[in-house]
Specification:
This protein is an all-alpha fold. It contains one helix and no strands.
Amino acid sequence: MSNETDTPKEHPMAADDNFGFHHREGLPTGENYKLTPEEEAARKKRNVAIAWSLLGFMAIVFTVTVVRIGQNSAGAL
């Protein structure tokens, strides 16, 4: 009365020496994909949003740093 579902199966990656990575993974294949104009526009918008977010974060870190240094130097006087 036993079938294949009764016996536990070994995980497929358990015996793999490459930790789940194929030996060709990450190597250039020569495949090219041409983006459509809509995809290019979306990529540009996304890149601009990331750039503005990064600049905003840098401004916040700079402002917090200047304020904290100002507080420390004012307390030393």
